[in-house]
Amino acid sequence: MSKEYETVIGLEVHVELATKTKIFCACSTAFGSAPNTHTCPVCTGMPGSLPVLNKKVVEYAMAVGLATNCQINQYSKFDRKNYFYPDNPQNYQISQLYLPICHDGGVEIETESGGKKTIGIHEIHMEEDAGKLVHDDWEGVSLVDYNRSGVPLIEIVSEPDMRSAEEVIAYLEKLRMTIQYLGASDCKMQEGSMRADVNLSVREKGAKEFGTRTEMKNIGSFKAIAHAIEAETARQIDLIESGEKVVQETRRWNDDQGYSYAMRSKEDAQDYRYFPEPDLVPIVVSDEWLQQIRDNQPELHDEKLARYIAEFGLPEYDAQILTSEKKLADLFEATSAICNKPKKVSNWLMGETMRLLKDREMDAEDLRFSPEHLAKIIELTEAGTINNSVAKEVFEKVFDEDIDPECYVEEHGLKSDNDEDALRATIEQIVKDNPQSVEDYHNGKEKAIGFLVGQTMKATKGKANPGIVNKILKELL
Asked: Where do the Asn/Gln amidotransferase domain residues begin and end (predicted)?
């Protein structure tokens, strides 16, 4: 009988904070600039330069800690983590080992297979990011860009509480949503502002001891993380089954080729020769400062979800989708406040907005149209000024270019034809030209009227008011 195995997973999630400047200097944190343009003596590790802590970094770290039910250390310190790598200009990284800012928290996740479960958070600490190595295979050289060096990070270290890729993705989605709601980071994995290291081991089901773990570094998408977990689980089980030992090591996951390879043997804390950072004083968080952060916490996902169902009468499914992304929730609330038609706003966001996001391969975070313009489309449709098919056409322009829908409708002559007398004459002609459909309708085929409506819309170039068309057709038939 073959043995059954259990996967044990813990994550280290690195999140780039949304501050305008770096953690210890005044250089910009903007993404995508020319290499080495956001640098100074501090973030390039020049001798004699001194770090000065960015207060906003501490506030974001505390906000994330409170939102993930952590204890806040009101006395915390920075430490030096020593290692030698070309993208690490000082040959050490300023981090927190002994007294991190947050500890002992947890978030509740929900999975289809396992229901509700709490994933423990061991600690959250602040640190600076390293630079970025760019490998030029053509020239056979590596180049270094120090723009990212000194960008503020928090590292969220979970307990080894996850047992499947599904639980890992649910945990990461919950973290990302929480951090986005706080405004602490945009968590764009494609830009590296949220990255995960996966610590994974397998053991026989029912065993108390953990197996030997490996760490897969800096995986940059949910899909890649799920693939990496499945492949590494299978690799470790194969080793155990064939009587070999799993080696504790750091591995790199190659998502294109679907396998991981060893990078280096796994370091422990003592390998980094940590010691207290001599250039920075301890951080003392007063009761008043902590209370101020507590008071400024925004409404988070779970409270918002409950409120949307209670206050706006939305179905739970709709409310789940709208609150899953902060940008969607903000658009929903702002548009509803203008036009006071929450269900209509929800329909537009759930329908056309989601469709266009998928077509354009965009994230909700990339939406640029204003709530005023969506509200205007809803009002124009409700007033019968434009019909539904025109509204969809106009919305596509609003989605892409955020044009003023009212001006666009006026300029392109898209107003509905609400002139009953003119429409009656057109419809009478269509009824006359389609005796078969009229006969089918009289014989009980309700669908025949749909064909006649379609012919009317064709004749009026889509401008006829469908409500009036249906009314006149029923009278004539």
From this structure: 330-477
Backbone angles phi, psi at 151, to 5 degrees: -70, 135
Please name the amino acid found at residue 290: L
Which amino acid, residue 96? Q
Question: Which two three-digit tokens encode residue 234?
Answer: 């299978």
| End residue of a domain, out of 265, 289, 313 | 289
Tokens 């994995």, located at residue: 189
Based on the domain organization, do 446 and 391 belong to the same domain? Answer: no
Host domain of residue 424: 420-476
Residue-wise pLDDT tens digits, 154-163: 999 999 999 9
Nearest to 183 by CA among 319, 37, 329, 402: 329
The kind and range of the H/E element at 331 are helix 326-339
73 lies in the same domain as 127: yes
In a 13 Å sphere around the CA of 389, the CA atoms on its Cβ side amount to 11
Rounded Cα–Cα distance for residues 247 and 238 (Å) = 13
Using one digit for the tens of pLDDT, what is the confidence trace for 199-210? 999 999 989 999
d(CA 43, CA 53): 12
Q: Are residues 98 and 232 in the same domain?
A: yes
Spell out the SS3 assignment of 147-192: CCCCCEEEEEEECCCECCHHHHHHHHHHHHHHHHHHCCCCCCHHHC
Cα→Cα distances 256→171, 172, 251, Å: 24, 22, 15
Q: What is the CA radius of gyration of the chain?
A: 29
Q: How many residues belong to the chain?
A: 477
- Phi then psi dihedrals of residue 14, to 5 deg: -100, 130
The residue ranking higher by pLDDT, 389 or 297, is 297
CB 81 within 8 A of CB 274: yes
What is the bridge-based pairing of β-strands 102-111 and 71-72? antiparallel
Q: Percent of the chain at pLDDT above 90?
A: 70
Q: d(Cα 313, Cα 335) in Å, to the nearest integer? A: 16
- Residue 54, Cβ neighbours under 10 Å: how many? 22
The per-residue pLDDT for 261 is 86
